[in-house]
Task: inverse folding
C-alpha cells in the first residue's frame, strides 16, 4: 500500500468515524463507506479528490479502487472542485410540469453560466439533479443541506441574492 | 373526512418530539407488543390486517415476513427502505420530517416480530434534514428506553441506525439497497436467493418501505382485523398519496383505499381540482414507472365503472386500459402538458438511473431517450414510434431488476394512449415546436 498523504479527519470527526464503524458487525466495516465519503466531502473542501478517497480507503482498510468505484457510481459525490454554493435544480417530470425548465433558464441567465459550470467568482456551481422527492413544492432546488421549494422566476432572484450576501 | 391512521396526530404542534408523540399514545403499541405479545403474534396481526407493501409492489407484508428464514443461525435484519426516489413520490420524506417517531415505533415492532436485533433505515443521502430529524428521534427513543438493551425491561434488545445513501434511484430496489448498505455500488442482485434467505451480509433480511413499517403501529394498537375493515377488498387500510403536477393543492394525503379517483382529484379536501381552471388531460397514478392514463380512463374503467384509489381498481383492465397504484406518486397533467416531452423527460431519468448491469436496460433506456428527444425536437421520422414500442418490449422482462420494466412502461403506455400526439409531433415538426398538442376531444370510451 502506498504511503498516504497528510490528510486526516479532525479529532471530532475521528470520534464520529469510530461511532459509525460500530454500527456494523465485525468484518463488515466497509458498510461505513458511504457515510464516510459524505463526511470526507464535507470536511475536505466539498469534493472527493483521489487523495481523499485513498485516505478513506486506508481508514476502512480496503483497496482504493473499492472507493473509486463507489464514489463514481453515486451521483451525490463531487469528483471535481465546485463553487461555494452548488445549486442542484431538479429537472424531473413533476418539477417540469410546474416550470422547472423556465426556472433553469432564468438561473443560467442570472448567473451567466450553463448547467455544469462554475461562476467566475467561484460562488456558484449549477447542476441539474433528478427527483428529490419534493414534487409537491415544485419547482425546487437543493443547496447544501437545504431544499428551496416553490421557486419561480421572481423569487429565485431573492434566493440567489441571499447567497451573494452571505 | 376519511379515517386517518398514520397522520392522525400529524398536525399536533411538536409531534416530532418524543414527549409530545408519547402523550398522543405514542409507543403504546411497543409496550403492548413487547409485554403481552409474542413475535409470532405480532406477525399474525400484520397478516390479518392485509397490509400490502407501500413502496410500490403491493406485496402482502405479513407474507413477506413469513418468508424470513427463521431456522438460520445467522442474525436477522430488518432494513427500512427510505430511499424514496420514484418521481412523483414524496410521502416517506414527508412522514419522516413530520412524525419521525411513528417510523421508529414501527421499526421496533417490526424488528421484534422478525427477531432482528440490529436494524437499519436506509435514507436517501440528499435528505439531510430528514436524516437529522430521524437521528434525533432515534436518540430520544434510546434515552427513553425504547431502543437499546432490554427494552422496557424485557429480554428484547434492538439497535437502530440511519444509513445515508448516495443519490441513486436504483438503490430503491431492495437488493441494490442491500449492496449499497454493504458499501458497494448499487447493482441489483440476481434472485433467488431472495433477501429473506440471503440478504444483508448473507443473512436473512426483510426490506420494507417507510409507510409499510409505520402502518404496523396502528395495526398493533387496534388489531389486524380493525385495520382490514378499512379500505376495500384486498386493498385494506389507508394509503399515503403524494399528489403533484398541475393541481391546485399538491401535497401528501392519507386516504382510505377505495376513494373514487374523481373525488381525489376534484374535491377540495384533496387535490382541489386542476390549476388555472384548466382541464384534466392525463394522470400517472403511482409514480413515474406506472402507465399513464388519459382523463377518461383514470376517472372510469373501460366498463364505465368509477375508478377507485385501490390496487385492484387502478389496475383494472390490465395495461391495455389500466395502470397501478404503485408508490402513490400521483402526477396530474393539465390540457397544456406535452405528453411527448414528459415521456422524453422520464426516459432521460431512467437512462440516467440505469445501473448499467444489464444491456437491454443500459442500452435500451439510452435509445428511448434519444428517439424521444428527436421527436420532441422536431426531428422525428415516421418509423420512430414503432421503434420505441419495439425497444420498450425488448427491455421489459429482460433485466435482473424491475428498473427495465419501469423504464419501458411509461413509454409504451404514452404511445398506447397518446399515439396521435406522437404522430402529430412527427408530421408537424414546426408546429409542434411552437405549441402544445392540447387535449384529445374524442374520448376512448366513445371511439
Result:
Amino acid at each position: 500500500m502506498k504511503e498516504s498523504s497528510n490528510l486526516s479527519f479532525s479529532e471530532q470527526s475521528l470520534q464520529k468515524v469510530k461511532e459509525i464503524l460500530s454500527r456494523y458487525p465485525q468484518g463488515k466495516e466497509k458498510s461505513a463507506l458511504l457515510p464516510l465519503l459524505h463526511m470526507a466531502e464535507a470536511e475536505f473542501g466539498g469534493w472527493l479528490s483521489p487523495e481523499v478517497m485513498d485516505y478513506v480507503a486506508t481508514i476502512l482498510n480496503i483497496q482504493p479502487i473499492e472507493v473509486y468505484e463507489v464514489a463514481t457510481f453515486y451521483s451525490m459525490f463531487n469528483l471535481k472542485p465546485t463553487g461555494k454554493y452548488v445549486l442542484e435544480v431538479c429537472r424531473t417530470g413533476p418539477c417540469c410540469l410546474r416550470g422547472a425548465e423556465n426556472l433553469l433558464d432564468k438561473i443560467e441567465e442570472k448567473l451567466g453560466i450553463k448547467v455544469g459550470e462554475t461562476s467566475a467568482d467561484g460562488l456558484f456551481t449549477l447542476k441539474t439533479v433528478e427527483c428529490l422527492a419534493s414534487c409537491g413544492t415544485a419547482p425546487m432546488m437543493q443547496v447544501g443541506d437545504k431544499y428551496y421549494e416553490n421557486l419561480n422566476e421572481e423569487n429565485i432572484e431573492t434566493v440567489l441574492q441571499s447567497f451573494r450576501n452571505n | 373526512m376519511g379515517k386517518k391512521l398514520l397522520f392522525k396526530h400529524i398536525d399536533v404542534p411538536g409531534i416530532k418530539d418524543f414527549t409530545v408523540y408519547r402523550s398522543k399514545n405514542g409507543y403504546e403499541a411497543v409496550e403492548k407488543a413487547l409485554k403481552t405479545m409474542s413475535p409470532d403474534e405480532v406477525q399474525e396481526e400484520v397478516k390479518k390486517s392485509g397490509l400490502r407493501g407501500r413502496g410500490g409492489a403491493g406485496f402482502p407484508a405479513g407474507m413477506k415476513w413469513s418468508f424470513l428464514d427463521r431456522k438460520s443461525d445467522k442474525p436477522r435484519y430488518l432494513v427500512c427502505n427510505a430511499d424514496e426516489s420514484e418521481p412523483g413520490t414524496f410521502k416517506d420524506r414527508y412522514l419522516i420530517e413530520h412524525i419521525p417517531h411513528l417510523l421508529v415505533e414501527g421499526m421496533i415492532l417490526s424488528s421484534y416480530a422478525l427477531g432482528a436485533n440490529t436494524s437499519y433505515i436506509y435514507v436517501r443521502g440528499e435528505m439531510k434534514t430528514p436524516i437529522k430529524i430521524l437521528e434525533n428521534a432515534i436518540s430520544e427513543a434510546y434515552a427513553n428506553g425504547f431502543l437499546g438493551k432490554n427494552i422496557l425491561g424485557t429480554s428484547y434488545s434492538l439497535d437502530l441506525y440511519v444509513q445515508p445513501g448516495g443519490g441513486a434511484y436504483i438503490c430503491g430496489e431492495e437488493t441494490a439497497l442491500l449492496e449499497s448498505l454493504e458499501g458497494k455500488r448499487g447493482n441489483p442482485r440476481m434472485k433467488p436467493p431472495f433477501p429473506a434467505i440471503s440478504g444483508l451480509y448473507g443473512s436473512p433480511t426483510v426490506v420494507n418501505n417507510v409507510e409499510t413499517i409505520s402502518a404496523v403501529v396502528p395495526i398493533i394498537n387496534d388489531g389486524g382485523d380493525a385495520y382490514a375493515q378499512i379500505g376495500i377488498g384486498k386493498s385494506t387500510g389507508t394509503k399515503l398519496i403524494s399528489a403533484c403536477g398541475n393541481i391546485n393543492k399538491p401535497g401528501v394525503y392519507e386516504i382510505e383505499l377505495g376513494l373514487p379517483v374523481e373525488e381525489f382529484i376534484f374535491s377540495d379536501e384533496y387535490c382541489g381540482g386542476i390549476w388555472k381552471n384548466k382541464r384534466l388531460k392525463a394522470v400517472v397514478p403511482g409514480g413515474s414507472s406506472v402507465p399513464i392514463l388519459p382523463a377518461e380512463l383514470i376517472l372510469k374503467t373501460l366498463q364505465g365503472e368509477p375508478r377507485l384509489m385501490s390496487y385492484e381498481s387502478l389496475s383494472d383492465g390490465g395495461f391495455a386500459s389500466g395502470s397501478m397504484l404503485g408508490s402513490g406518486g400521483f402526477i396530474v397533467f393539465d390540457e397544456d402538458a406535452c405528453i411527448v416531452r414528459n415521456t422524453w423527460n422520464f426516459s432521460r431519468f431512467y437512462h440516467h438511473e440505469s445501473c448499467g448491469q444489464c444491456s437491454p436496460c443500459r442500452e435500451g433506456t439510452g435509445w428511448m431517450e434519444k428517439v424521444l428527444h428527436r421527436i420532441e425536437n422536431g426531428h422525428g421520422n415516421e418509423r420512430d414510434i414503432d421503434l420505441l414500442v419495439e425497444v420498450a418490449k425488448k427491455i421489459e422482462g429482460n433485466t435482473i431488476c424491475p428498473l427495465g420494466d419501469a423504464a419501458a412502461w411509461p413509454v409504451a403506455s404514452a404511445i398506447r394512449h397518446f399515439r396521435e400526439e406522437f404522430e402529430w409531433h412527427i408530421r408537424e415538426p414546426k408546429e409542434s415546436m411552437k405549441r402544445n398538442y392540447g387535449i384529445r376531444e374524442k374520448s376512448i370510451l366513445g371511439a
